[in-house]
Amino acid sequence: MQLQLTTWPEVETYLESSRGIIVPIGSTEQHGPTGLIGTDALTAEFIGRRLGEAMGVLVAPTISVGMAQHHMDFTGSITFRPSTLIMVVRDIVVSLARHGFDHFFFVNGHGGNIAPVSAAFSEIHAELAEAAAMRGPGANKMPAEVFCQLANWFDQPTVSKMRDEMYGDKEGAHATPSEVSVTWYAYPEQQRDAPLGDIAPIERAFQGATDYRRLYPDGRMGADPSLSTPEDGEKLVAAAVEDLRKTYQRFLQAGPT
Ligand code: NI
Question: Which domains does the chain have, with CATH numbers?
């Protein structure tokens, strides 16, 4: 159930039985010569919506732009600075908390989001603690306490094992065959077949966008996305949804019962 395809009375009814919401978050950045620029947002959105359907949980609009400073030397990439992403996450959580949501489950498709989103969670906890301290009579539905979790679909336990079994060293760290496979399963008409050169190995941590491109001239980090198939994507999506279902169920235990 997508928030965008509901009405406000339907959301009120939903909140009578559940206060959890899934928020897909990704990035809009280059994914090598054959990977779609939307890969990280499309994978998180597709898996997040599947998870929402499987569990009857509401799914918020996807945060499609993330922290991708290091990809900005490649045409078409868009980035938030970390401080912007922190505020975007903060504003979405606080908006929804105001209506009574109190469990926010972020299904993430992009490694660069992990640090700023974690920082955003700390900002939210700090802010709500201050607000709770000042709360008086007539307070709205804002909960005194909220729970936020970032769950990377790509490093859930079964998914990690499958990525390793399917691709081994060729999985790499960016424009990976696993994430490209998921996009090709979700959008079969978007498969690409461009020639790929040698794989640039991962030797050291990159700095900014110029350094990233120096290290990884075609955008891939140690990955061979020519191994991608829609069939692999289907298996990875099924595993991600199953892993995330368990993660979400554990997450719902957080808080007073
Ligand atoms: Ni990616």
Answer: 3-252 (3.40.50.10310)
